[in-house]
Amino acid sequence: MKFFAEIDVMPRKEILDPQGKAVRLGLHNLHIDNVGDVRIGKHIRLEVEAESEEAATSTVDDACRQLLANLIMEEYSFTLHTA
Amino acid sequence: MEATNHLPVDSPNTGSLPTVDVARKLGLLPDEYDRICDILGRKPNFTELSIFSVMWSEHCSYKNSIVWLKTLPRDSERMLAKAGEENAGLVDIGDGLACSFKIESHNHPSALEPYQGAATGVGGINRDIFTMGARPIAQLNSLRFGNIDLPKTKRLLRGVVKGIGDYGNAFGIPTVGGEIYFDDCYNTNPLVNAFSAGIVEVGKVAKATSHGVGNPVFIVGSATGKDGIHGATFASEDISEKSTEKLPAVQVGDPFMEKLLLEATLEIIASGHVIGIQDMGAAGIICSTSEMSAKEGFGMDVNLDLVPTRQANMQPFEILLSESQERMLVVVQKGKEDVIQQIFDKWDLHCAQIGTVTDTGRLHFYRWGQLVADVPAHDLVLGGGAPQYHREYREPAYISEFAKFDINTVADVTAGELKTVAEHLLSHPNICSRKWVYEQYDSMVGTANRSTNAPSDAAVVRVKGAGLPQTDKSIVITVDCNSRYVNANPNTGAQIAVAEAARNIVCTGGEPLAVTNNLNFGNPYVPEVYWHFVEAVKGMGAACSRFETPVTGGNVSFYNQSSDDGPVFPTPTIGMLGLMENPDNRMTLNFGQAGDAIYLIGSTKDDIASSEYLYSFRGVKASPAPAFDIEEEVAVQAAVKQVIKDKLVVSAHDLSDGGLFIALAESAMAGNVGFSIKTDAGLRTDAFLFGENQSRVVVSVSAGQQAAFEAALSASGVAFSQLGEVTSGDFVIDGTTLMTVADAKAAYDNALGTKMS
Amino acid sequence: MKFGVVVFPGSNCDQDAVDALTLMDQEVVKLWHKDHDLQGCDFIILPGGFSYGDYLRTGAVARFSPIMNEVIAHANRGGYLMGICNGFQILAEARLVPGVLLRNTSQKYVCKNIYLKPESKDALLTAGLEKSAYKIPVAHGDGRYFADADTLKQLNDHEQVLFRYCDEFGNVTDEANPNGSLDNIAGVCNAAKNVFGMMPHPERAADIALGNTDGRLILEQLLKAVLV
């Protein structure tokens, strides 16, 4: 079965996100003043061929842990759906 | 205010006072815990215990190294600040200007998160420079990695180089040189040492101090998060599998913030209203408040509620110990708060008054309306109450084994082998071109790097920057340490590191002035490791005295060892500052034109000990340090200085890794020419071509200058010999063409890039 | 002619641009990004660096800095405007020149000397350049020029390509392309030919003390053209 994984990788919440901070400054330059905290991460879409949803979940989880997210600094979450 | 005999509020977790067991977990010895109780006249609460644990960690207190560091030469007429007195060394370079320079390690953070570890290392060393009011103008770095064929090494190298590049490039200070070595001993513990040099007008230097009761204390720059809490303690332990679990929130560098902080800091210092300023690096707020207060015996009352934080409800110890980057502590003249505030507003930076200077000599920290810590500043700091230890040391058994090496057990190279050895060395990761690395660094921003289009043994950087007066002077800077030599003989090896740094500066046309050192060693509680340290400091001290290059400061990094690989090679990296008064005195390493004569200044010995050839081609790991005599070195450098000054040479290049052959090849490749030389029948061919005995320099001389050159050398009394001449493109040894300059470049230029791709 | 160099937070080649123009005896001032006053400058330069840390996209945040209102109005009036490196990225984000700058193909920052072949025969910056190749430093992570086919045709048809990366003899080759730019494009101008953008840094090769003055030759040609 073919699954699609929608993965979000975000800087861990206690970790400084310089990019988010600079973007917030830029928004304030545009007078979009009511924006508070900004945090910027990555969205990754994967196609997974697997026997079951459990197997697909485990594959995506592995991919996130080993490569897609740096667990020292980032956390990840994902959703799975079928084609 | 509460009386000091009244116990401050306690540990957030337990409600009871922490035990000696908790102290041990924080890295304090039972004796140290008792000492804290004596100092306070009562038992410390958790916040206070945390304070002592970081301030008395090796990283902040140098407790296991200071008794030996004090033996290093620290004075010369040019010193404007003594070692340890300010954030970095300060050297008078004339014309009313001073150079502030320092090297610092970020080894442990880089081992776990190479990108951020290296980036924040670059950030930290630059803050040390600009907190003194000096505008950084150039950076170097000294890196050590494990076996380059391991995937882990490649990951670390990629991360570290990208981290240094991304931070330094955005910050906008050129990275103009450095060194990289690979050896299995660094497989678990890479070394990342970052060097920065800046320029300040004499008399406009900012100090890391505090005085004047009632003067406001500001925290400026980034908000405070939970980054790197107990990071300083972390840097004071061996790396183990468990380290990753213990890891505090990784410090993330923000070079953009650092650039703003640089400009704002230089502006507030120029305003004349700053009493004292200190960067917040290891141990954060507690380190800067205590060190600045202890300097002149003042105290501070600080309300931690006023510290801008990234997270709500941070505990007092978290705020005090946070190692969030890009922050400064500033004491300002009372009444001038607005001036400071306006400057920080201009640069969109946080600037918050968090306390005032007192005359108590104590630090009072408040949180949520209560006194949470009450500690004497003096007792926290190096030179005050921080402990100083004499550690046991013992010569390791291998040293005498190494000394037994007999050159006759190694067969000399045959004529047929020469090309193989040459190619092995040209493409060896410890020798080949560092292009793959340095092209990722902005080496030209600031339009002051004079080495971009004219390569030399040390980097030449014009003294130039926004707001600085005009001058013709350049600084000449280098970082050097062959740790294989130091491992073979720490005393001689450390002397060689100093000598090589000085030789590089002399070969570039500069005058060596002063040293900053980065002492990277294993666990100081291991007597054999501590012996490395003691011997290296002795050797360094002797050499620095002889070269009249005092040690202005630096950094000690212990615990570079792992349970699997043991300690790293002892690596006392030398960062040396030299000066070039007259721009015309600069010398480059590239050969000029075919027909120029090639000479060797210094004498070659039948010595292959600790050479890259012996170590990696012959596979002999056990041999002593290469031959070195400091008086011979001094004489050779004096002779080289003279012939450069008298404009008798076209090029000068010192012999180091790979010996004579590599020095000739590098000079030839840089000039896109070749060379033809004769070997010495009285010496082994391998020793002549690939041996690394010290105190030698290859120069080239135009035909018209040969007589004058020979006369000058003869008068100096230093040994010299004509090796041969520059050719149009062939590398010729004893009449046989070994390869062409194009062949050599093919092996040399892309070897590292190929390994990394 | 009065030059103004805009200083954004994170600019780091502003002083280098000022120094190069000062060496050439030009009047030059720095313009702070929060101001709304071009101080009577005739020629505006957006310098290199990492404005706003290059976060989000290079040039994306700086493009909305307060002074950009005046800079854009100046360009639209036909005033001279030049962006170097990060300045070029800001011009592209502000749509003042066609195309975009993407991450280098190597995915790595690159700093080295490269060679530039002047292309446009009628743009002020290049029309009078005579050498076949100019040795100029590049220093960027996001310098891969890209434009769609229609835009590319427009650039070529209207002599809007200023420079292409080449070897030291002026041959435009793949090996000479440091970042994967489309057709080796290193710099372009707008259709009206008063706004110039280029990734390489001529201001870094303007001082004899650094051993390379090819950048100065380019800037001198520009001065000759705009001062008439």
UniProtKB/TrEMBL annotation, chain A:
GO terms under biological process: 'de novo' IMP biosynthetic process
Subcellular locations according to the entry: Cytoplasm
Enzyme class, spelled out: ligase
An example molecular function term from Gene Ontology annotations: ATP binding
Domain of life: Bacteria
SUPFAM superfamilies: PurS-like (SSF82697)
UniProtKB keywords: ATP-binding, Cytoplasm, Ligase, Nucleotide-binding, Purine biosynthesis
Catalytic activity: N(2)-formyl-N(1)-(5-phospho-beta-D-ribosyl)glycinamide + L-glutamine + ATP + H2O = 2-formamido-N(1)-(5-O-phospho-beta-D-ribosyl)acetamidine + L-glutamate + ADP + phosphate + H(+)
Residues making up the signal peptide according to the UniProt record: none
Family according to the record: Belongs to the PurS family.
Protein name: Phosphoribosylformylglycinamidine synthase subunit PurS
Species this protein is from: Arsenicibacter rosenii
Lineage start: Bacteria, Pseudomonadati, Bacteroidota, Cytophagia, Cytophagales
From TrEMBL, chain C:
SMART domains the UniProt entry points to: GATase_5
Subcellular location: Cytoplasm
Gene3D superfamilies: 3.40.50.880
Reaction equations catalysed: N(2)-formyl-N(1)-(5-phospho-beta-D-ribosyl)glycinamide + L-glutamine + ATP + H2O = 2-formamido-N(1)-(5-O-phospho-beta-D-ribosyl)acetamidine + L-glutamate + ADP + phosphate + H(+); L-glutamine + H2O = L-glutamate + NH4(+)
GO biological process terms held by the UniProt record: 'de novo' IMP biosynthetic process
InterPro entries in the record: Class_I_gatase-like (IPR029062), PRibForGlyAmidine_synth_PurQ (IPR010075)
EC number: 6.3.5.3, 3.5.1.2
Keywords of the record: ATP-binding, Cytoplasm, Glutamine amidotransferase, Hydrolase, Ligase, Nucleotide-binding, Purine biosynthesis
GO function term, MF aspect, one: glutaminase activity
CDD domains in the record: GATase1_FGAR_AT
Residue positions of the active site: 85, 201, 203
Role this protein plays: Part of the phosphoribosylformylglycinamidine synthase complex involved in the purines biosynthetic pathway. Catalyzes the ATP-dependent conversion of formylglycinamide ribonucleotide (FGAR) and glutamine to yield formylglycinamidine ribonucleotide (FGAM) and glutamate. The FGAM synthase complex is composed of three subunits. PurQ produces an ammonia molecule by converting glutamine to glutamate. PurL transfers the ammonia molecule to FGAR to form FGAM in an ATP-dependent manner.
HAMAP family from the UniProt entry: PurQ (MF_00421)
Subunit-structure text: Part of the FGAM synthase complex composed of 1 PurL, 1 PurQ and 2 PurS subunits.
Protein's name according to its UniProt entry: Phosphoribosylformylglycinamidine synthase subunit PurQ
Source species of the chain: Arsenicibacter rosenii
